[in-house]
Amino acid sequence: WWSDVEMGPPDAILGLTEAFNRSKDDRKVNVGVGAYRDDNGEPYVFSCIREAEKRLLAKALNKEYIPIVGTVEFCKLCVELALGEGSPPIKNGNYCAAQALSGTGALRIGAEVIQRLSNGNKEIFFPTPTWGNHARVFTHAGLKINKYRHYDEKTNSFDYDGSLQDIEKIPESSVVLFHACAHNPTGVDPPQKQWESLSKLVKQKNLLSFFDMAYQGFATGDFNNDAFAPRQFVKDGNQIMLAQSFAKNLGLYGERVGCFSIVTSSKEEAESLLSQIKIIIRGMYSSPPIHGQRLVAEVLKDPELRCIWECELGAISSRIIKIRKDLRQKLEALGSKKDWKHITDQIGMFCFTGLTEEQAVRLTKEFEIYLTKNGRISMAGVTSKNVDYIAKCMHEVTK
Ligand code: LMR
């Protein structure tokens, strides 16, 4: 049955962790996958999650199936976090939502929804560059992939003119994917004024926007600020689709908790869509896991846990900002002739260093620093102990 199956390549991001784990070299550093580490390089479990776990344990809940689309409470809490409590779609019931297997699962449900249910084009436009897994998620659902400009390599900033020009040319009724905040891999987002213009353009062209929001609260430490773009789009009358993940902002990576939602034009439309989403999910994995969503709900609905969560996110974003400064300073102190200003200009978990593929591969092969070949490093993996080594090696390969 399987004799013709060829060996597949390792995953561009998760394959790095596999290689890192295999390595026996003491120098090894994992700045590949976007997973937060504390300053000792250890995985971090949020205190609010530890507390929520205790509370859940005390409740001794059963393990029955939850509804195909998750609980109404969980979904509402997620959409409120994203769009803001009391936002018109929530007040009027003009949205539908389903628990998803983290952000990737939410994107995958969205891809099926577009493929099976939308009467628009089956074509999605990605920013360039974009997260390494986007193409796979959407092509597996049978969508055609296309691109628009996002990152300007010359200025290491958002290519506003390029993106407007490209989006202007997108055929009406196509889908456009946006990273809500902390763009992965570049760490470069449009400023608010530019989001406002993008929203108007998308509305005017009748495009369907799909927001990938994997970093709400992680980019600036402020949930409202990080949700500016999807909220602005909704305010302007765009019926957005949204993929939320709690992997990074609540550290629930392996629990796989996320939410997929759509803002609709009416309550009836939302109800019909939800009934179809149920059929899609039932055919893929039947119903979602219970533990992670209970943790999220526990934190989101309890003001005390929410407050702890916000403090923790503030501390995390401060550590990342500080380590960005350190890395830049060290490179400059080593006498690097390159301009490293973008290390401190970019936001969120990643730094798009500007290293070429050849330089990135050298860092891995010669120096045991595991980063993606596009030159992205996860700042969350840089610590006060390894920053000197990383700077020295980055300088070495860019001389
Ligand atoms: C990343 O970009 O490193 C993360 O989103 C993890 C993943 O699944 O790729």
TrEMBL record:
Ranges for domain Aminotransferase class I/classII large: 28-391
Catalysed reactions, semicolon-separated: L-aspartate + 2-oxoglutarate = oxaloacetate + L-glutamate
UniProt key word Hydrolase: no
Enzyme class at the top of the EC tree: transferase
Keywords: Aminotransferase, Pyridoxal phosphate, Transferase
Necessary cofactors: pyridoxal 5'-phosphate
E.C. number(s) listed in UniProt: 2.6.1.1
Similarity comment: family membership: Belongs to the class-I pyridoxal-phosphate-dependent aminotransferase family.
Note: In eukaryotes there are cytoplasmic, mitochondrial and chloroplastic isozymes.
Subunit structure: Homodimer.
Name of protein: Aspartate aminotransferase
Organism of this sequence: Timema podura
Range within the parent protein: 158 to 556 of 556
